[in-house]
Amino acid sequence: MSLKSERRGIHVDQSELLCKKGCGYYGNPAWQGFCSKCWREEYHKARQKQIQEDWELAERLQREEEEAFASSQSSHGAQSLTFSKFEEKKTNEKTRKVTTVKKFFSASSRVGSKKEYITPRVNPNVNYGLWIMMC
Q: What range does the record give for the signal peptide (predicted)?
């Protein structure tokens, strides 16, 4: 055995612990070697870049969709006319149903007044109590 003392454990150089940006603070492996301050700056930059890219993509897709819609409108004018007729028929059908329901509940559709209702006649010669008991 040697008399030389050996270091046990993990040996990490001081420069490996410092922030990757060289600000003088210590970095963290969870933040990819940046300190908390530099990590926030890098994360904010990356986030803003992603937002800008997403915005540009959304604008491009919107333009493409509008162009496709415009070209389909010019080539499918007959289909639009057919759809208009369909919508008109549906509207007429709804109106007819609503009118029917309104007629059903309107006062003019009721036949006669409350005085004209027929009331059952009771025969005084019949003993109804006995009849109920027999049933």
A: none
Crossing angle, helix 77-105 and helix 36-75, to 10 degrees?
90
Q: Which of 55, 25, 57 is nearest to 40 (CA)?
A: 25
Between vectors from CA 52 to CA 46 and to CA 53, what angle results, nearest 5°? 90
- The reported pTM is 0.40
CA distance 109 to 87: 31
- Which of 40, 11, 16, 41 has its CA nearest to residue 29? 16
**What mean pLDDT value characterizes the chain?**
77
Task: Tell me the average pLDDT across 25-44.
Answer: 92
Q: Which residues contact 32 (CB under 8 A, 6 or more apart)?
A: 20, 39
The domain locations on the chain are 37-96
Nearest 10 degrees: Cα torsion 73, 79, 80, 82: 170
Q: Hey, what amino acid is at 121? A: R
- Distance between CA atoms of 41 and 51, rounded to whole angstroms? 15
